[in-house]
Amino acid sequence: xxxxxxxxxxxxxxxxxxxxxxxxxxxxxxxxxxxxxxxxxxxxxxxxxxxxxxxxxxxxxxxxxxxxxxxxxxxxxxxxxxxxxxxxxxxxxxxxxxxxxxxxxxxxxxxxxxxxxxxxxxxxxxxxxxxxxxxxxxxxxxxxxxxxxxxxxxxxxxxxxxxxxxxxxxx
Length: 171
Prior knowledge:
Elements: H1 2-27, H2 31-36, H3 39-69, H4 74-89, H5 91-105, E1 110-119, E2 127-136, H6 137-141, H7 150-155, E3 160-162, H8 164-170
Antiparallel strand pairs: 1-2, 2-3
Helix pairs in contact: 1-3, 3-4, 3-5, 4-5, 5-8
C-alpha cells in the first residue's frame, strides 16, 4: 500500500520539482535550460506521470482489497466509499480524474504557462515573479471528449485554468 502511494507522491514531487526548475530558469533567463527542457513538454510529462500514478494507485488498491478481503469487506467498501466521496465532493478530484483520461486518449492538456516579473514599487531593484501552469478551458471543451457531468463545471472555470491548486487539493 505505501509503496504504491510512494509512486504517487514521487510523481507529485517530480512535477513540483519540474515547475520549480522551470520557474528558476525563467527568473534567471536561462535559455539553455529552457531549450534543453522545453516547459510545455516537461510540464505535460510530469502532469501525466502524476495523474497516471493516481489512477494506478486507485485501481491496484481496489483490486488488492477486493482480492485480499472480499467484496463485502469493510476494507474494500470503505476504500470505495472514500474514493466516491472524494469524487463527489471535490471538483479538483473529478477534474483531474477526467483530465488524465483526456490526456491519455485525446491530447496534451497543458496548453501554456504564464510567467510575469514586475518591479517592486517600494524597491525598484527587486522583482516579484509569478508562474502559472495553464489549461485552456475552451481548448478542453472544443474536443469530442466526454467530460460527463464536468462539462458545466469546467465551463464555470476561468478561461485559463491554473492547474496547480487542483494538484494540491488532490494530494
